Amino acid sequence: MTQGSGDRDPRLQFPSAPLSNEIWQGNPDKKSVAFTFDTEEDTAAELPKILDLLDEFDCKGTFFIRGEWAEEQPDALREIVRRGHPVHNHTWSHRAMTVMDDAEIVGELQKTEDVVQRVAGVSTKPYWRIPIGYRNEELMEKVERLGYRHAWLSAFADPRGDDPPEKAIEFGLSRARNGVIFLYHPRVPGVSVVVKAVMTALRDQGYAFQTVAEISAA
Question: Domain residue spans in the chain?
Answer without folding.
Answer: 20-217
